[in-house]
TrEMBL record:
<dbReference type="InterPro" id="IPR013783">
    <property type="entry name" value="Ig-like_fold"/>
</dbReference>
<protein>
    <submittedName>
        <fullName>1,4-alpha-glucan branching protein</fullName>
    </submittedName>
</protein>
<feature type="region of interest" description="Disordered">
    <location>
        <begin position="77"/>
        <end position="99"/>
    </location>
</feature>
<dbReference type="InterPro" id="IPR014756">
    <property type="entry name" value="Ig_E-set"/>
</dbReference>
Amino acid sequence: MINKRFFKTKDEVEVTFELPSDQVGQSACVVADFSNWQPIAMKKVAKSQSYKFKTRLPKNQQFEFRYLVDESQWVNDPSADRYTPNGFGEDNGLLTTYQ
């Protein structure tokens, strides 16, 4: 799941990536073009039974991303704005920060 929070006075959007823990064994990361495709660890949140990562991204742009589960399994977010082929025979999720 993806949650976006737009600010009236800032040119950025707070984005929360969330992956249910039933889809994860030991670890989950967000891997995205905004991190130069370097994995960013998601934190396990016991209260919501999920893994989360929160960041701020510039408004009016789009970003490709995927989740890496247990350092070996690629997972797409069903709530991505769109999907785009990634050159490896699969799709990346596409996140837009247009309001």
